[in-house]
Amino acid sequence: MAKSKGKSGRKNEDPNERVVVRNRKARHDYELLDTLECGIVLTGSEVKSIRNGKVVIEDGYARMQRDELWLINADIAEYPQATIMNHERRRERKLLVRKSQLRKFAESAQDRGLTIVPLSLYFKRGIVKVEVATAKGRKTHDKRQKLKAKTDVREMRAEKLRHS
């Protein structure tokens, strides 16, 4: 039995998974090489703000510090109802990854001079997860070529539909 498409239009979408925010700019600015799902260490007010969708990861990136992976410059808005224990908006947040995965993932990024960018932030069975990717920056002319190729494919598909 085939699963129906969910809100995002993807097949086989997990009903226990809810994407809060996607970094669409990353797919345009970078050539994505390898992805990894990570947990993230958060405070209670941060989780509440994420549930409300008050998070921006476009400017964020991940970096290795002291043999750990940290998410830097991700903006999680303060939770208005938290009066005493609110959080800093752009603090560094630790990403939770198995040592073996981290070693393989981070070493390849450091050796080849790649960036680690967050692709999406989502809930999976009630737990906040971050999908990160090692990425190689695209030059402006590469971005133009990619957009042109995408437009050409779209036009060919439309032409094919008209003639059938």
Automatic annotation (TrEMBL):
Positions with biased composition (Basic and acidic residues): 149-164
InterPro entries recorded: SmpB, SsrA-bd_prot, SsrA-bd_prot_CS
Region (Disordered): 138-164
Domain of life of the source: Bacteria
Keywords carried by this UniProt record: Cytoplasm, RNA-binding
Pfam families per UniProt: SmpB
GO MF terms, alphabetically ordered: RNA binding
GO biological process: trans-translation; trans-translation-dependent protein tagging
Compartment(s): Cytoplasm
Coiled coil: none
Key word Cell division present: no
Compositional bias ranges of the Basic residues kind: 138-148
Main location: cytoplasm
One annotated Gene Ontology cellular component of this protein: cytosol
Job of this protein: Required for rescue of stalled ribosomes mediated by trans-translation. Binds to transfer-messenger RNA (tmRNA), required for stable association of tmRNA with ribosomes. tmRNA and SmpB together mimic tRNA shape, replacing the anticodon stem-loop with SmpB. tmRNA is encoded by the ssrA gene; the 2 termini fold to resemble tRNA(Ala) and it encodes a 'tag peptide', a short internal open reading frame. During trans-translation Ala-aminoacylated tmRNA acts like a tRNA, entering the A-site of stalled ribosomes, displacing the stalled mRNA.
Classification via PANTHER family: SSRA-BINDING PROTEIN, TMRNA-BINDING COMPONENT OF TRANS-TRANSLATION TAGGING COMPLEX
Protein family membership: Belongs to the SmpB family.
Protein name: SsrA-binding protein
Organism: Stratiformator vulcanicus
Gene name for this UniProt entry: smpB
